Amino acid sequence: ADKEYTIALRVEKIKVDEDETARVAAMYSGSELAQARGWTDEYLAKHFVVVYADYYVEYDHTKTFLDDGYTEQYFYLVQDPKTEKWEIIDNTSPSTSNEP
Could you tell me how far CA 45 lies from the centroid of its own chain? Predict the structure, then answer.
């Protein structure tokens, strides 16, 4: 939403996906990526979540090649235990269409 090329954003649905969180946390658990990022299994259990979002977005096509439309994405978030702020670290490739 805060990108300079986003004109409008309407969130239709957003929720924490417990099943996807468990699946991805298990995938990260003990991995080289987790080790490189300093993520212990305990950290992942307490400070990692996957959020599903379904939204409509409209872009300024003079600034981006992205198509307007409905998008579904998973956002992968980690929490800084000191500040308790959440940060999006990754997201899936969007599934887009012009209809809901």
Answer: 17
Alpha-carbon torsion 50, 51, 55, 61, what sign?
A: negative
Distance CA 62, CA 37 (A): 36
Q: How many residues are recorded in the chain?
A: 100
For every residue of 28-70, DSSP letters joined together read HTT-HHHHHHT--HHHHHHHEEEEEEEEEEEE-TTT--PPPEE
Give the pLDDT means over successive 10-residue stretches in the chain (100 positions): 92 95 94 93 95 95 94 94 95 61
Report the pLDDT value the prediction gives residue 92, as an integer from 0 to 100.
87
| pLDDT (0 to 100) of residue 17 | 94
d(CA 74, CA 21): 10
- How many Å apart are CA 77 and CA 88, to the nearest integer? 4
Q: Are 14 and 91 in contact (CB under 8 A)?
A: no
